[in-house]
Amino acid sequence: MAAADAAGSVIRPLFRGSVAADLKADQSPVTIADRGAELAMRAVLGRLCPECGIVGEEFGVERPEARLRWVLDPIDGTRAFITGRPTFGTLVALLDGDAPVVGIIDQPVTGERWIGVAGRPTSFVGPLGGRVGTRACAALGLAELSCTSPEMLGADLPRWRRLAGLVRRNYWGGDCYAYGLLALGQIDLIVECDLKPWDWAALLPVVVGAGGVVTDWQGLPPRVEGDGRIIAVGDPGLLAAVVAALGDEAG
Question: Considering Cα of 142, then 148, then 151, then 153, what sign does the dihedral take?
Answer without folding.
Answer: negative
